[in-house]
Amino acid sequence: MLPPNLLGHLLGSVAHGLAYHSQKNDFKILRIVFQRSLADTSAEVYTLSTDSWRRVVISMEEQSFILSFDVNDERFRKIMLPQNYLDEPSYSDFEHLAMIKGSLALIVFGTVIDKILGICQIWVMREYGVVESWTKKWILINWFHRSWGCTDNGELLIENANGLVSFDPESLNENILAIEDLKWVGYTANSMESLALLDGVNVNV
């Protein structure tokens, strides 16, 4: 059971993130509350070892960028998006962040005019935090209803007329996953294996 947070139950959207602090063998929870105005956005961090919350400084601006949080010094940092990543002969339906084979990725889906074929841009940051390392792969893909993220090996999870499928952007192969109930997919998240113990030393194998 967590202690009461400092921000309380403010009106607005709330986002949470769970992270492991490897240097101190500790766990932290980041809580961000978005108000009507970006200037009113607030953030706080819960630390397991102290069983307490504390406020952290967050600054939001009226521009598009990736906001990262360093669990070591508990500071936010901006990562700029690829320049002109929307300058393609299509309109953008949606975009989201993902992890592809351990690298930060920005996936942008658009639709051509006839709405039969979709355009998918996959931007991968080869060196984390270095804007110049963004590289792009551009592919055509059949129209689909929704994207659910990526698998560990870099395949896209999309929902089309065949249901939930995994799509390989390298080979362009599509694998039907035969999953009827997709409600659980929206609650999945990228994770990393860890042998850290809550009340003991790390175990190495």
Automatic annotation (TrEMBL):
PANTHER family: BNACNNG10540D PROTEIN, F-BOX PROTEIN CPR30-LIKE
Superkingdom of source: Eukaryota
Organism per entry: Fagus sylvatica (Beechnut)
Protein name, as recorded: Uncharacterized protein
